[in-house]
Amino acid sequence: LINVPLVLLTYVIVDHRYAVLSATFAVVFSVVLLALDYVNLAPFEYHTTTGTSTILAPIAGGVISGFCYGMVMRRASTGGTDIVAAWVRKKYPEASFVWVIFCLNASVAALSFFVYGYRFEPVILCLIYCFLSSHVGDTMIKGFKEAVKFEIVTDKPEELSAELLKHMKHGVTEIPAVGGFTHSNKTLLICVVNRHQIVAFQRIIQQFPGSFAYLSSVKETMGNFAHIKR
């Protein structure tokens, strides 16, 4: 019910599609919670030598929640403070969406100190949960955008470009270059590939012993970064 006015405001302030998807998640999440009341969850209970383990719940919950964050937040939000974070991101687009959510949730956790009988432990456990969910969610979101940029100095640009296009399925940019020591003509090849393609890239470079290559991390790719089909 609290999500209803938040979603309506998001529909006006942020984006129509974003609001509809966020409302869909909120409804599905609420229905699943209600359905779990009728499911026997006893097989998933954990036991320790003392009978309790307060630290395991926020760790496991934070990782699972962070995974859900990463899957959902590329298109929508999970409601509540996430919607408020979308408003903040709308006004300050340079702010990290996930860490804005963490700050909001951490503030709520800090205020809960007065709710839980002035006890620090529940607040700290909640902060652990918030941090893990934000960290895992942020890693998930960046994992879809991060890439690796290779820059290769070579005197066999045509052969090397052909191999890169054939196996990497990503485009190659050629820039004329001159060796500072030998003053011979070279070519600088620039190729941005997915992170899991690093080993395959290294195998290709080994076929051209006269070439020199180095890599750097790319935080985010924009535009046409799709694989070349032919």
Briefly, what is this?
With 230 residues, the chain is α+β, with helices and mostly antiparallel strands.
Structural shape: elongated
Q: What order do the strands of the largest sheet run in, or round the barrel if closed?
A: 2-3-1-4
Residue share in β-strands? 5-15%
Distance between the termini: 51 Å
What letter string, H or E per element, gives the SSE order? Answer: HHHHHHEHEEHE
Could you walk me through the main structural features you see in this protein, from its secondary elements to its overall organization?
- The protein is an alpha+beta fold and 230 residues long.
- Helix content is 52%, strand content 13%.
- It is built from 8 helices and 4 strands, in the order H-H-H-H-H-H-E-H-E-E-H-E.
- The protein has a 4-stranded antiparallel sheet, with helices on one face.
Layout: helices, strands, pairs:
Layout: H1 3-13, H2 16-36, H3 56-72, H4 81-91, H5 97-111, H6 120-143, E1 147-154, H7 157-168, E2 173-178, E3 185-193, H8 198-206, E4 212-218
Antiparallel strand pairs: 1-3, 1-4, 2-3
Helix pairs in contact: 1-2, 1-4, 3-6, 4-5, 5-6, 7-8
Offer a few descriptive terms:
4-stranded antiparallel beta sheet, alpha+beta, 230 residues
